[in-house]
Design brief:
mainly alpha; two-stranded antiparallel ribbon; 9 helices
């Protein structure tokens, strides 16, 4: 058992920022966490109070998380901290080598909560055993109104069990409903959204092109210096090593506005004084 824990610990230790886990989008993550915990989060920063993170660990390790201590309705930062203390206790118990940046997460910054949600999703995929799990029953029906967007979360009686180990949920239809009938978004609004996205991508592409052009210019500038140093060494006709060093330094310290001559201008010798 200890060897198994160590292997899992090693797996998580190898999850760096370039791991595929950190390229999972927020929409996919929100769909996954809503399906797993039977909640209705619309923003990743709603995870800031730590309750959802605690219950994800409870789904992985049933009975290991004291869910009665987890406050899904927490609205204040000092209550958030209490939830993270519960989470840290589980991490310590399971020897999970992940530092929880509580001070950042409780500020509800989207990026910090997104990165931690990406990490914990990856941990879930690696460690969830595929057992049935009833999230609403485990939290005693709490968190039924955990939604800032205005939609009504699922009722406790409609809770479903999770049976798949690595859960990947397709994004749900979020179109508004009136009287139970779907109302698709207007074509004009959809087109405006798409045009805005295209414009942002074009601006980003232009910025990247400018950056590449500047980098290429800088690369050519320094390559030119190396080439000049190489030529100076190959055609060395200096009388001493000190003169060669001076020539190399002159090349290295020259700016892009300077025009380098093959040789610095010779100082005119003083005319002999007639006696």
């Amino acid at each position: 058992r200890q060897q198994t824990v160590q292997k899992r610990t090693d797996k998580m230790a190898n999850i760096g920022m370039m791991d595929a886990a950190f390229f999972v989008g927020k929409n996919e993550l929100l769909s996954w966490i809503n399906e797993l915990l039977h909640i209705n989060y619309t923003k990743v920063e709603q995870c800031a109070n730590g309750a959802a993170f605690c219950q994800i660990m409870d789904a992985i390790y049933p009975g290991e998380v004291p869910m009665k201590k987890v406050m899904f309705e927490a609205k204040l930062e000092h209550d958030f901290v209490k939830n993270y203390k519960v989470l840290q206790t589980v991490f310590d118990k399971k020897q999970i080598p992940k530092h929880i940046e509580v001070n950042k997460l409780i500020k509800a910054k989207p990026l910090d909560n997104l990165e931690f949600l990406q990490w914990i999703k990856r941990y879930f995929d690696l460690h969830y055993g595929g057992h049935e799990y009833n999230p609403v029953e485990r939290r005693g029906g709490a968190g039924a109104k955990e939604n800032v967007g205005g939609n009504t979360a699922a009722k406790p009686g409609a809770a479903r069990t999770v049976k798949s180990g690595a859960v990947r949920v397709a994004a749900k239809d979020t179109s508004a409903t009136v009287g139970g009938a779907s109302r698709p978004p207007s074509t004009a609004a959809k087109r405006a959204t798409e045009d805005g996205a295209v414009q942002r991508l074009e601006e980003e592409l232009t910025s990247l092109k400018l950056t590449v052009a500047e980098l290429e210019k800088e690369r050519d500038f320094y390559f030119g210096k190396l080439r000049d140093v190489e030529i100076a060494c190959q055609t060395n006709d200096k009388q001493s090593a000190g003169e060669l060093v001076d020539e190399v330094q002159r090349i290295l310290y020259a700016t892009s506005e300077d025009v380098l001559d093959p040789e610095p201008p010779a100082q005119p010798s003083a005319a002999p004084i007639a006696t």
